[in-house]
């Protein structure tokens, strides 16, 4: 197709053909506004769900052999808070505020594997336990600095 206006005609004809194809095949699972190219077959949905379940199962195994004090963000931050209170000079010299993001990154990522903000009943980041623990640690750090 060439010329102006023909591309919109072409798109309209494609949509009509896809709609007719869905009607003939009994595909009543179409959501208006979504491209039929984005719709997954039941087999693809099953494969995706199996793959997702495998990843989630593997993610649960990551910290199986780690002592509880070293795979819980709140406990880790408490250790750092104790260090700061007992040995403030050493704590300051170690530049802990720069190290914590890298240290906590794998733990947070493991907890976010199953998080999907596009689901209807998703948990806000601010409500997650790791977020609150970091927030409390930051507040405690700010209070001690102001003293």
Automatic annotation (TrEMBL):
Compartment(s): Nucleus
GO biological process, one term: mRNA splicing, via spliceosome
A GO cellular component annotation in the UniProt record: nucleus
Superkingdom of the organism of origin: Eukaryota
UniProt cross-references to Pfam families, sorted A to Z: GCFC (PF07842)
Keyword annotations from UniProtKB, A to Z: Nucleus
Region spans: Disordered: 19-43
TM region positions: none
Domain GCF C-terminal residue range list: 74-136
Gene Ontology MF term list: DNA binding
Family under the similarity heading: Belongs to the GCF family.
Protein name, as recorded: GCFC2 factor
Organism of origin: Picathartes gymnocephalus (White-necked rockfowl)
Lineage: Eukaryota, Metazoa, Chordata, Craniata, Vertebrata
């Amino acid at each position: 197709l060439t010329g102006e206006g023909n591309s919109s005609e072409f798109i309209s004809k494609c949509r009509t053909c896809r709609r007719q194809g869905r009607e003939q095949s009994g595909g009543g699972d179409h959501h208006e506004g979504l491209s039929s190219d984005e719709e997954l077959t039941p087999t693809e949905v099953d494969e995706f769900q199996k793959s997702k379940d495998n990843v989630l199962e593997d993610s649960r195994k990551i910290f199986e052999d780690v002592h509880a004090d070293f795979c819980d963000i709140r406990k880790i931050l408490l250790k750092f808070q104790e260090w700061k209170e007992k040995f403030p000079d050493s704590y300051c010299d170690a530049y802990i505020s720069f190290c914590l993001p890298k240290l906590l990154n794998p733990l947070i990522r493991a907890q976010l594997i199953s998080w999907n903000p596009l689901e209807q009943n998703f948990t806000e980041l601010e409500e997650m336990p790791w977020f609150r623990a970091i927030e409390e640690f930051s507040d405690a750090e700010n209070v001690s600095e102001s003293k």
